[in-house]
Amino acid sequence: MTRFVENTITFPYRRSLGPVLGPFMTALTEKRILGVRDGDRVFVPPMEWDPATGEELARDFVEVGPAGTVESFTWVPEPSAQHPLDRPFAFAFIRLDGATTPLLHAVDAGAPDAMREGLRVAPRWRGARVGRIDDIVCFVPGTNPQVDGDDVGPAAEPVKMMDYVASTTYRNPVPIAADRAVAASREGRLLGHRCPSCGALYAGGRGYCVIDAIEIGPEHEEDLPLAGTITNFVVVTPVQYPGQTETEPFARVFVLLDGTDVVLGWQPTVAVAAADVRVGQRVAAVFADPDEEIEEAGVMGGHFGRLKGWRPSGEPDRNDPDLVNRIY
Ligand SMILES: [Zn+2]
Fold first, then answer.
1. Is 268 exposed, middle or buried (0-12, 13-18, 19+ CB in 10 A)?
2. What contacts 153, CB < 8 A, 6 or more positions away?
3. Are the C-beta atoms of residues 202 and 193 closer than 8 Å to each other?
4. Measured in angstroms, how far is the CA atom of residue 140 from the centroid of ligand 1?
5. pLDDT, tens digit (0-9, with 9 covering 90-100), for 186-233
6. Domain spans of the chain?
7. Ligand 1 center–CA 107 separation, angstroms
8. What is the rounded distance in angstroms from the CA atom of residue 316 to the CA atom of residue 320?
9. CB-based contact 285:190 (threshold 8 Å)
10. Cα-to-centroid distance, 305 and ligand 1 (Å)
11. 0.70 cut: is pTM over it?
12. Between 20 and 30 A from 251 (CA), which of 12, 21, 87, 196?
C-alpha cells in the first residue's frame, strides 16, 4: 500500500486595508457594519469603486443591519479546517437591512432544513474583535445579535492593517525506495540506486532512472560514500516574517560524493559558520544520534532520514575548477 506524506505550506503576510475597508474593519470591532452609499444604492462591504462603471465612489459611510435576510445559500455538510465553523453550516448571501448588495457569510443554522431563502438572521460577534470579517463569527437565525464569550470592546486604534495566512496542504506518495533510504539512514548509511541499464547512480531514494525511465529495484542498491566536496552553496539570511523559526544566517551546500557523479543538493551544514563555507571544502556526513529526536520525513532535494548535514572533515580543500557550480 502506498504511503503518503502530507505537507502544508503557509504564506503569512500583512496587507494595508486602505481608506474604505479600514473604517469597515474598525467598525466591526465596535459591533457595527458599514456600507457605502451611492445614490439610492448601499454597497456592503463598502467599495472604493462602482462595480459597474469603475467610477470612484464617495466615502459616504452608512450603518446597516445588524440583522438581514438570507437571499441564497449553500449547505456545507463537512467543514474543512479552513472553514469558519467546525460543524455543518451554510454559506449564505445575506442582505443586511438597509443594504443593496448581499454580504457573503456563514450561518450557524444547525441543520440544512433550518435554512431557507427569506430567513432572518443576525450576527454572532466574537468577544475579542481585531478588525477582520470573522469578528462576526457567523450569523444565527433571528434578529438579536449575540456575542461569543466576554466582550472586550472596540479596538483602541483605527484598524489599518490585516494579518493574513494563506496556506495549502497537499499529499505526496512516498516511493518504496525512499522509505528504504530513510531506513538506511537510521544505520548511518546513505543509500544509492544504480541504474542497471546506464549505470547512473542516484541518491535520496530515487527508485527510477531519469534517463532510461525504468524502475531501479532493491537489488541495485549500494552504499554511497559518506564524504564529499562542496561544489556550490548559498547563505540564507532569514527575514523575520511571522512563523519564521530561523534567526541566524545559515548555509545550504551542494556536495559531490567522493568517487561518484552524485551531487546532493541543498544540504544543511553542521559545526561550521555560514561565513566559513567555501567551494572545494571537504565535508563528511553527520547523522543524528540514535536517541536524538529528529524529523525523518522528506526525501525532497536529496536529504533524507536521519542525515543531519555535513561538517568540515579537516582535509585540505580540493582546488579543482570543474567543481565550481556543479549542482547535479
Ligand atoms: Zn539509466
1. middle
2. none
3. yes
4. 63
5. 999 999 999 999 999 998 788 889 999 999 999 999 999 999 999 999
6. 3-167, 175-323
7. 58
8. 12
9. yes
10. 25
11. no
12. 12
